[in-house]
Structures are given as C-alpha cells and as structure tokens.
Amino acid sequence: MKTLKDVISLKFKTSESEGVIFHGEGQQGDYITLELKKAKLVLNLNLGSNQLGSIFGHTSVTTGSLLDDHHWHSIIIERHGRNINLTLDRNMQHFRTNGEFDYLDLDYEITFGGMPFSGKPSSNSRKNFKGCMESINYNGNNITDLAKRKKLEPSSVGNLSFSCVEPHTVPVFFNATSYLEVPGRPSQDLFSVSFLFRTWNPSGLLLFSSFADNLGNVEVDINEGKVSVHINVTQVKKNRIDISS
C-alpha cells in the first residue's frame, strides 16, 4: 500500500498504561505506530530515510496524559503527504514529518491491538493493547465491522471478543471537604492498607489512622507531588518514621 493520504480513526478505553494500538511497516523502512506509553499517546511515523543518513524520516509526537482511566478516548489521524493532523478527544495537533518523502509505503497488512514479531528489537519490547476499541476506520474501511463479519482476509485474530467487559472497581470522588471514615480493627498486630488514587492537586491527606491506647498514629499524604508516610509512635525514643517517594 503506497498512499499519499491517510485517515485513521478509532475509539479506545483501557486501564493499561502501555500498549500498541496499531502498527504498519514496509520493506523500504517506512512505518507508522500508534501506541500508549506511560498513559500518553505516542505516534511514530517514518515516510522514508535514505541509507546515506542525510535524510532522516523518523518523527515522534506525544499527546494526552492519564489515558489509562478506562474512559472512552477518540483518535483521528489525518495525513496529506508530510502534513499531519493528530486529534485526541477534539484537541488537534498539527505537525510536519521529518525527511523529504510524501508517500507512506507499507506492506499488505497493518495490525490493530499489537504488532507482529518481526525479529526487530522494537517488536518484542512493546506490549499488545489490552482494553476495548470501537469504530475503527482505516481509509474508509470499517475495520470493526469487517472483523466482526469475518470479511478481513487474510487476517490473524487472537483472543478477541466483540463486547467490552467493565472493571469491577468502584471509584470514589473526594472534593476538598469530603472524607471517608471506616471502623478500626482493634487488637490487631498488623496494619495493612492499599488503594489506587489519581489527583491534579500537588498536596493533600490520603489516609490517617490513630493507634489504640494512644500509641501513636499513621499518616499518608501527598506533599508537593510526592507521597509521604509518617508513623508516630509515642512509647519509643525514635518516635517518628518518615518515608517519602
């Protein structure tokens, strides 16, 4: 496939921060890869480089953040030669690719949700996408519909289901004045707690608990973007432990 124009669009949601959304490569060194890295969207594109090294076509653009929130996100990639519009959730970014070539020269297949093992170092270090996609459209072809009707030939389909399983976790939203108080566990030697959190605020109290019999307390907070744990014990000489990460 040698194209001057491309339009690729899809929607996805995932709770994973890494994963290849789609990939295509050609014999001439051209490639296009859209993937999640550290919960950001990264588009890698190369319309061609020469062996002398004077034309270097690799272009990488990063957009978005916190995309592993299990909410639907929409992507549109519009390419006309070296001019690219990358739209994520209605926020458009325009850029021009490096190099001097206008055509994207790919092999006969592109892959969604991962990339085939090509023997190249880049192919085995990347994770496959884990999550849900819908409305996949590649240059006018409704890929989702064709895959469901088994009209993509030849195609290699892994463990794919045409439904989207919702996670069983129940999130809790806290505003600046709200808190959640739960009963303590008296006469227990072990104090154990785990949770996931997400916030835009650089500081705030995450957890506080007093020990029984006035033996002290434990506090977990965010201070200037770092998580700190403070353990106060009243009956020993070194009565305060501070751990920051």
UniProtKB/TrEMBL annotation:
Pfam families: Laminin_G_2
InterPro entries: ConA-like_dom_sf, Laminin_G, Neurexin-related_CASP
Superkingdom assignment: Eukaryota
Gene: Cntnap2_1
The protein's name: CNTP2 protein
Organism: Bombycilla garrulus (Bohemian waxwing)
Residues annotated as domain Laminin G: 1-164
Residue stretches in coiled coil: none
